[in-house]
Every structure is written in structure tokens, then in C-alpha cells.
Amino acid sequence: AMVRMFGYLKNSGESITNEDIKDALNKASKAHIAWVAKLKEIAETMQIQPLQTDSKKCAFGHFYHALQLDNREIAADWKKIDELHHSVHSYGTKVMDKVKANDQNGAMQLYQEAEQVSKKLLALLDETAAEIDRMTAEGKKVF
């Protein structure tokens, strides 16, 4: 029932298909790219903007924490996604603290670190999607 709250899971929440999970990973990638672009803008312009810094509150975080995914084939990657996702969001707070302190060098340096973590996260999201494709081809369900 909890999954039903997420509009982008089309299957009424009763059965989550591999496609649904891939879809969510895809949306996560897109939303994440937009988030990082906004973080860059904040660091470059030194203007605070609304930015979700809590990894559990963004759309992907909601989706991620609603799914207890313990499929052994992707469990390790799934856990790593959470760590990287949380790490990237934490840079939002750090960058804005530098902006408030009027430290543009610090803000840009932290933004660049966030971008590195972000690249790892996007690669992992892609890898996980490919893994799900492989499971689908073998007729295995993630859930």
C-alpha cells in the first residue's frame, strides 16, 4: 500500500515489475542531474536556492526507502546507491554553508566533490538498470 503513494509506480502497488524499478532508476538519474545542475548554479552565483538536502525526502529517496529490496543479485549495488545518494545530498548543505559564509572557492570545491560522487552514483544507477535487464532476460523478477 505504501508504494501506491508514488505516482510513478503504475502497477497499483501490488506487483512491482522489473520495468517499474528501471523506470524509477531512470527518473532518479534525470532528477539527480537536475539537482546537481542546481547545486552548480548555487556555487557559481553564490545565491541560495531551494534545494532538497535530505536524501530521504526527494522522490527517489521516497521510492528507495519504500522498497525493501533484498534480492541477492542486486542487493550490494542497491545498498551502495543509498550511500552515494545520501552523500550527494549532504553536499547541498555543505555548499550552502559556504555560500552563507561568502566563501566561493569553498563552495566550488565542494560542488566539484559532489560532482565526482554524482558520477559514481549515475554509473551505479546505470549498472543496476543493466543488471535488472539481465535478470529480465533470464526471466527473473527483482521482487
The helix fraction, in percent, is: 55-70%
- Which range does the strand content fall in? under 5%
Shape: elongated
Q: State Rg.
A: 17 Å
Oligomer: single chain
* Major beta sheet summary: none
Order of helices and strands: HHHH
What is the number of E strands? Answer: 0
- Sheet/helix structural class: mainly alpha
Regions with pLDDT < 50 over 5+ consecutive residues? 1-12
What is the mean predicted local confidence, pLDDT?
Answer: 86
Structure in a nutshell:
By secondary structure, the chain is mainly α. The chain has 4 helices and no strands.
Could you walk me through the main structural features you see in this protein, from its secondary elements to its overall organization?
Residues 1-12 have low confidence and may be disordered. The protein has four helices and no strands. The chain has helices at residues 18-45, 59-66, 75-100, 104-137. With 143 residues, it is mainly α.
Features:
143 residues, 4 helices, mainly alpha, elongated, 0% strand
Topology:
Elements: H1 18-45, H2 59-66, H3 75-100, H4 104-137
Helix pairs in contact: 1-4, 3-4
